[in-house]
Design goal:
This protein is α+β, with helices and mostly antiparallel strands. The protein contains eight helices and 14 strands. A six-stranded antiparallel beta sheet has the order 3-4-5-8-14-9. A four-stranded mixed beta sheet has the order 12-11-10-13.
């Protein structure tokens, strides 16, 4: 029997608001019910209605496409998440208007550091115009679940990377690169770095400095910017992988800017590497499957969380771990001044929130709400 689209179902809207329906109240079913909920001023109601719209075929898809133009970023992203894997040309066209895509090569290497696979991938992004030709590229990171921390079998691991635990991370946007000198100056005016180049990551910034940058960037753009949480950072770095690095089990200087090879026995020596005591232009090395660059090496990146000795009691929802009384904050990713083992996806470092160094920078996240 064909189901009548206009008959009430368990997920239909009830006339009369969000309170429990009074006895004998009229239930608004089908597409009218979805439209009613999409018109609600409550963001959570709108997002719930989007999932229901999928049950109504092409008519429901049209409603979701229309919501991509919604004024609420959270609702836009909920609609985008529902549509991003659809193959219909009209849907792709609408999504590309909202969030264009860029393409990049994703590679993996074998135990000797030799490339063994390469494929072209793509990611959605948006740009912020910071003025004077300076832009900030923000990449869409799809939500998902991953195992945070390192297994006991991983070479070079420390107890602070345990216990491994499952974390569910909501979708968000992350900077395609660490914040550069040019981007810092466009927002903060004065450059704290020993000037090395417009495309070099800004360095010499404390955690406090990075938070101030995010606050000023939020004021400048009208969007909510912040540092990544530790969980978001590791999830974004791994990009679906489970090994020490997003490109495989070992590391080469062609893949990452780091100091030397004293830890990983399989890492090949190279005569072509002239170890310069400085950073590299962002984007000089291979990206991961999410389209993020410089997640391993170049500069340490501040994260929002307070330092804890291990993951016992850590949040499992991707949020920043803010409990505790110490003033130490987290750094991730390794740097040009540290050896390969510190560039692993699971490596954790901590310093005082006022600490500054020539190999410490940061990357920003954009909140969806």
């Amino acid at each position: 029997m064909t189901e009548n689209q206009n008959q009430p179902r368990e997920y239909d809207a009830v006339l009369g608001g969000q309170n429990p329906p009074p006895l004998g109240a009229a239930v608004l079913g089908g597409i009218p019910g979805v439209k009613s909920r999409l018109a609600s001023p409550i963001v959570e109601v709108k997002i719930a209605a989007l999932s229901e719209a999928l049950k109504y075929g092409d008519v429901g898809l049209d409603l979701i496409i229309g919501v991509v133009q919604d004024e609420s970023r959270a609702v836009k992203l909920a609609a985008f998440s529902l549509l991003k894997d659809r193959d219909e040309p009209n849907i792709k066209q609408q999504l590309h208007k909202y969030l264009p895509i860029f393409e990049f090569d994703v590679i993996t290497v074998d135990a000797e550091g030799q490339e063994n696979s390469r494929h072209t991938s793509s990611a959605h992004f948006f740009t912020e115009d910071l003025g004077n030709g300076v832009v900030l590229e923000m990449v869409y990171i799809p939500g998902g679940t991953f195992m945070m921390g390192s297994p006991e079998t991983e070479e070079g691991r420390k107890d602070r990377e345990s216990p491994q635990h499952q974390v569910k991370v909501p979708p968000f946007f992350a900077g395609k690169y660490p914040i550069t000198e040019a981007q810092w100056r466009a927002v903060m005016e004065k450059n704290p770095s020993v000037v090395q180049g417009e495309k070099r990551p800004v360095i010499g910034v404390s955690w406090q400095d990075a938070v101030k940058f995010c606050d000023k960037l939020s004021e400048k753009t009208g969007k909510k910017y912040r540092l990544l949480s530790e969980a978001e950072w590791e999830y974004a770095c791994r990009a679906g992988t489970t090994g020490p690095f997003h490109f495989g089990e070992t590391i080469t200087i062609e893949l990452v800017k780091h100091d030397k090879y004293p830890v990983y026995a399989n890492a090949p020596p190279t005569d072509s590497y002239n170890r310069s005591r400085e950073t590299t232009d962002v984007g000089s090395f291979t990206p991961n499957a999410f389209g993020l660059y410089d997640m391993h090496g170049n500069v340490w990146e501040w994260c929002s969380d307070t330092w804890h000795e291990n993951y016992k009691g850590a949040p499992t929802d991707g949020s920043s771990w803010e409990t505790g009384t110490n003033d130490k904050r987290m750094q991730r990713g390794g740097s040009w001044e540290y050896s390969a083992v510190y560039c692993r996806s699971a490596t954790r470092l901590r310093y005082s929130a006022s600490f500054r160094a020539i190999d410490v920078g940061f990357r920003v996240a954009c909140v969806l709400a």
